[in-house]
């Protein structure tokens, strides 16, 4: 009798959520975690039907996975068919399907090979991407690179830098996984750059800020060749990527007129910013007094200590020594906390943060908003009720970041 109640509940839920696809998707996530795969797939499909966006490869992948787990291969392949026709799919996304555990049961089906071949062929033509070296680390000569994506729509001459740095970690796989998330920018004519930085634990966040500044300078210096206006550069990032983005956006204008590298002789300023749940005050984490920079046991437990493992070069031995003095670490922590760099000439900022974020306290955004208000900086803040530390919870409002950049990169 209990099992009979579940379909009735789902039908009632889907009916009530018919006009809100994101509630359907969240319901699907809950049902999936409860291992009610058929109901989860139905909820995802209900969301797709009511979603104003119709090219939804990520959603169709989720539906296909749930159908497959429910032992319904025909329904799964029907969902996969939409992926093979999608204008949004990227090669990394399609290749990743081969390792998707939910789809494992479909891979012995004769339809699988044909689906993959068609999907790879389609994805190969969806994006024009190029990896560019934008600089080298001064300490060891390691190359710094970014993926440049050309507009899908009519070029508008504007550039968006997307900082790839989840938990202050960055690599090529992550940068490639960002490609589909850039589609809306590309469709509106933006040139998009997925900037990779030196990752922790090898490089700390101060070094990463310098990397992003170098990327901005490179793009500005090469603006003509890249097909963008050097005074129309926006930057976006989530979590640690948002932290680095704000550090660059709030930085003082410092141009090295004596630079031997001409790239270093141009500005690293950006003209607009959009960030999700960013750390902004490392000296007061979640409230006054809790010092993120000196919370070594907690940061080691969460595998992010490397981001604040500040070091100094000992020239006598040519070795790096960690900075252990609390006062010195506080100074360094303040230097990489965007809150303390706010001035009235900073660019417009769009921030979203969930009020149930368990990773970065919403206090981090609230204190920055108050500081920007006092300085008269143009901004928009969206606090998402119940939102946690993931992009899905920020939908659909986060899609407005595209319009934010269209408005302020004039």
Tally of structural domains: 2
Using the alpha-carbon principal axes, give the shape: globular
Give the number of helices. Answer: 16
User: Any idea of the CATH class of the largest domain?
Assistant: Alpha Beta
Question: Descriptors for this entry?
Answer:
two-stranded antiparallel ribbon; globular; 410 residues; Serine Threonine Protein Phosphatase 5, Tetratricopeptide repeat
Quick overview of this protein structure:
The chain is 41% helix and 14% strand. It has 16 helices and 10 strands. The chain has 410 residues and is α/β, with parallel strands linked by helices.
What does this protein look like?
With 410 residues, the protein is of the alpha/beta class. It folds into 2 domains: 2-124, Serine Threonine Protein Phosphatase 5, Tetratricopeptide repeat; 129-408, Rossmann fold (3-Layer(aba) Sandwich). The protein has 16 helices and 10 strands. It has helices spanning 2-16, 21-33, 37-50, 57-69, 73-84, 91-97, 110-124, 172-177, 183-187, 205-221, 223-226, 240-250, 296-301, 326-335, 363-375, 401-408, and strands at 129-136, 143-149, 159-164, 191-196, 233-238, 272-276, 311-314, 319-322, 349-354, 379-384. The strands form 2 sheets. The protein has an 8-stranded mixed sheet with strand order 1-2-4-3-5-6-9-10, with helices on both faces. Strands 7-8 form a two-stranded antiparallel sheet. Helix 15 (363-375) links the parallel strand 9 and strand 10 (379-384). Helix 2 runs antiparallel to helix 3 and helix 4 (57-69) packs antiparallel against helix 5. It is globular, with a radius of gyration of 23 Å. The termini are far apart.
């Amino acid at each position: 009798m209990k099992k009979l109640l579940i379909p009735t509940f789902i039908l009632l839920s889907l009916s009530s959520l018919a006009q809100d696809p994101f509630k359907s998707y969240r319901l699907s996530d809950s049902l999936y975690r409860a291992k009610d795969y058929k109901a989860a797939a139905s909820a995802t499909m209900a969301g797709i039907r009511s979603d104003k966006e119709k090219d939804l490869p990520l959603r169709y992948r989720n539906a296909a996975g749930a159908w497959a787990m429910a032992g319904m291969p025909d329904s799964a392949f029907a969902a996969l068919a939409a992926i093979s026709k999608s204008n949004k799919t990227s090669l990394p996304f399609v290749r990743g399907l081969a390792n998707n555990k939910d789809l494992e049961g479909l891979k012995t089906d004769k339809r699988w090979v044909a689906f993959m071949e068609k999907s790879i062929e389609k994805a190969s033509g969806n994006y024009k991407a190029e990896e560019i070296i934008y600089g080298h680390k001064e300490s060891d000569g390691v190359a710094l690179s970014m993926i440049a994506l050309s507009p899908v729509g009519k070029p508008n001459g504007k550039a968006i830098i997307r900082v790839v740095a989840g938990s202050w970690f960055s690599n090529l796989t992550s940068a490639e996984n960002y490609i589909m998330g850039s589609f809306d920018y590309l469709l509106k004519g933006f040139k998009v750059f997925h900037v990779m930085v030196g990752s922790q634990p090898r490089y700390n966040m101060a070094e990463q800020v310098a990397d992003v500044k170098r990327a901005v300078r490179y793009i500005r210096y090469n603006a003509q060749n890249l097909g963008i206006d050097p005074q129309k550069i926006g930057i976006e990032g989530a979590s640690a990527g948002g932290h680095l983005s704000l550090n660059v956006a709030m930085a003082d204008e410092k141009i090295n007129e004596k630079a031997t590298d001409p790239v270093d002789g141009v500005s690293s300023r950006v003209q607009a910013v959009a960030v999700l749940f960013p750390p902004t005050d490392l000296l007061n984490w979640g409230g006054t007094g809790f010092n993120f920079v000196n919370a070594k046991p907690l940061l080691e437990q969460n595998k992010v200590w490397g981001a604040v493992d500040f070091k100094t070069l000992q020239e006598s031995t040519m070795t790096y020594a960690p900075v252990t003095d609390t006062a010195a670490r506080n100074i360094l922590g303040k230097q990489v906390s965007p809150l303390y760099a706010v001035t009235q000439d900073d660019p417009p900022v769009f921030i979203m943060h969930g009020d149930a974020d368990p990773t970065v306290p919403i206090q981090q955004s609230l204190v920055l908003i108050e500081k920007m208000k006092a300085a008269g900086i143009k901004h928009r803040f969206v606090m998402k009720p119940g939102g946690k530390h993931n992009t899905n919870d920020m939908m659909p409002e986060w899609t407005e970041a595209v319009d934010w950049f269209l408005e302020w990169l004039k």
